[in-house]
């Protein structure tokens, strides 16, 4: 798994301006992030409703996933692609991919690129099961069933 750390770079470097602002309400955040895509809204609502249970160690609670998406620059249909195509409809694995970037296990730019591929070719870029296991190893309370 050491090869996953290659070319990770600084996960906090920004190549874009984040959309979420401190004064935003939840509907504001959903509109800004989803770009009107209903699949993205559903994915983000699942992140909010399941986030605290899945990632109890997150300092930002149920909003951690949304803030991570914004930090990486994943918006609109790309959010849905992350959940549906890359993570096979598993919200725990979806949140784990975001945590993997945050923990420095995976490059956020690669995740962003994978999510942007409408032809599903991005699935091959993200070793979901390997990263999920790595996150669970680092955070033993992550996604306890």
Could you explain the architecture of this structure?
The model is unreliable at 1-12 (pLDDT under 50). The two termini are 24 Å apart. The chain is globular. It has one domain (25-138). Helix 2 (38-54) crosses helix 4 (77-86). The protein has helices at residues 26-34, 38-54, 64-72, 77-86, 91-102, 108-116, 128-138. It is mainly α. It is built from 7 helices and no strands.
- Alpha carbon gap, first and last residue: 24 Å
- Overall number of domains: 1
How would a crystallographer describe the biggest sheet? none
State the total count of DSSP E strands. 0
Unreliable spans are 1-12
User: β content, as a range?
Assistant: under 5%
Compose a concise summary of this entry:
This protein is an all-alpha fold.
């Amino acid at each position: 798994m050491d090869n996953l750390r290659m070319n990770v770079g600084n996960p906090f470097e920004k190549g874009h301006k984040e959309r979420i602002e401190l004064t935003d309400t939840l509907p504001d955040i959903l509109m800004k992030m989803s770009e009107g895509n209903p699949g993205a809204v559903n994915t983000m609502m699942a992140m909010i409703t399941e986030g605290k249970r899945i990632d109890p160690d997150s300092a930002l609670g149920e909003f951690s996933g949304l803030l991570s998406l914004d930090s990486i620059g994943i918006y609109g249909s790309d959010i849905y692609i992350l959940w549906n195509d890359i993570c096979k409809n598993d919200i725990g694995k979806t949140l784990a991919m975001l945590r993997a970037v945050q923990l420095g296990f995976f490059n956020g730019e690669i995740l962003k690129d994978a999510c942007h591929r409408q032809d599903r070719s991005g699935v091959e870029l993200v070793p979901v099961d390997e990263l999920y296991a790595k996150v669970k190893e680092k955070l033993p309370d992550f996604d306890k069933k």
